[in-house]
Amino acid sequence: MQLFTSKNNFFFLYLYLILFLINFVFFILTKDNSWVSDDYAFIFGAKLYNLIQDKFFFIETEPTRFIPLFFLINQFIPESYSTWHFIVVIFYFFTSIVLFKITLKLFNNFIFAALTSILFSVNYSISLDSLSWGVYYSHIFNVFFGLLSLYILIFFIAEKNKRKKTLLIFSYLTILLLSISLSEGSLIYILINLFVYIFFYFLKKNYLQNFFNIFIIIFPLLFFFIINSIFFSHPLKILSDRVNLDYESKYGNIYNKDNNSEIYFYKSTYAPRNAKGYFFKLTDNILKSVNLSQLENIIKNYEYMQFIKIFLKNNYYKIISIFFIISIIFSSYLAIFLKEKKALKNYKFFLLFYLFVLIIYTFIYARTNLSIALSVTSALLISKIIIDFWNYKKKYISTFILIIFLTPSILNGFTKFNISGDFNAKNNFKKFKEINTSTENKDKSILNQDNRYKFYYFYKNFNENKSMLKKKFKDHTYFEFQNDLIYLN
């Protein structure tokens, strides 16, 4: 493994080819997915609004969230799902390259950096939702901009030339301010940048340098607080709303979805912020970080595996308990072995970094399907373990860990990544064909199935309905238009 060096450009190109092939294979397997659910309202709704208002684009944000860039990008997303899907996957590919560059810069180990970027790329337990759903692209863009900001920060700290340093500061701030305007999911990358700075650079700088550097690092976060206070009279409006929302009463019908609706509810986005809700979020995030949660999607994909699905639901707590027991035993063995080799201290950063991000996603964001930064931290930690045990002549352990991590993605690839939570690619495509056919035939009966289909229907049939749409919605704000069209009879 020592044959590879960062000075050999051949291996750089070889790695980039591997990363590209991983993402290209994923794209080929999923290119026949289609628009679904909120895609119609956010993407085609924005296009329809511009037609009604005779605008090329508009700039607005939600009443409770400062995300104007998200709504701006929506207006220019191609009508073809596969085209847009390709663009999103390409961003994911470039993200893996940036992660490789960062890891190489921090640890100066080509193999470690390469393996980290590969494990990040194939952890579809975390990234699949964001890669598949049209309007979830913001989380792929966020991780790209977030890691790019960290890469720039590393150069900024080392740079001595004032002119170049100023340019790097400007680039850092611009990237993160744009990212914040895209989604509040970007905020975690500011905290990650701060964490990395404190761990690697804080003790190497004097008081004034630390004060200046930390101010630059967290300025986008301060900007977020200020802009929210100005627009929404609360520095953390969206978080406050989600913490205080009574999810159980608002989405109580979820409890009646099936016989095991309690598990479904607590694993959903609408799980309440209580001990039980946090337990499920924590469990899901841990399983996703080691790429095992995809196994549930694989089981859902095949009818003959339904008995396994029922068994898992009926014995969920027992299975989770067994998983944690096995994990503790295996982790204890790893820790004891590494302690004997006097290598355990080398894991301080990787363990703290993983726990830091895990806690933020579990207890602050309280989300599991969008926790892409957790894929970065788990890839770093798992790569470190694999390489260390390989070097300590425990190749069977390294191989075992690698197989366990990769197998779910390989198996899910055979299903063409058809299912991810409530996302079902085959059903979505079938429904999209039905919507498209009804839209082409001017058959409005399809609109009774879901109000969001109205945005697609009227966008595709704008000329025939132009007079009515302009009469009803001309001079509306975008959000007034969205709300009024939903309830249009």
List the SSEs and their pairings:
Blueprint: H1 9-30, H2 38-53, H3 68-74, H4 81-107, H5 110-122, H6 124-132, H7 137-158, H8 162-180, H9 187-200, H10 207-232, H11 237-244, H12 247-250, H13 261-267, H14 275-289, H15 294-301, H16 306-314, H17 316-340, H18 348-365, H19 372-391, H20 395-414, E1 419-420, E2 423-424, H21 425-440, H22 453-460, H23 462-473, H24 478-486
Helix pairs in contact: 1-4, 1-5, 2-22, 2-23, 4-5, 4-7, 5-19, 6-7, 7-8, 7-9, 8-10, 9-10, 9-18, 14-18, 15-20, 18-19, 19-20, 21-22
Level of helix content?
Answer: over 70%
Biggest β-sheet: strands ordered side by side in the sheet: 1-2
Specify the oligomeric state.
single chain
Query: In terms of structural class, how would the helical and strand content be classed?
Result: mainly alpha
Intertermini distance: 66 Å
Question: Any low-confidence stretches, pLDDT <50, length ≥5?
Answer: 1-6, 255-259
Q: Mean pLDDT, rounded to whole units?
A: 88
- Any idea what the shape is? globular
> Strand count, sense and closure of the main sheet?
2 strands, antiparallel
Please give the number of β-strands: 2
- Using only CA atoms, what is the Rg? 24 Å
Beta-strand content estimate: under 5%
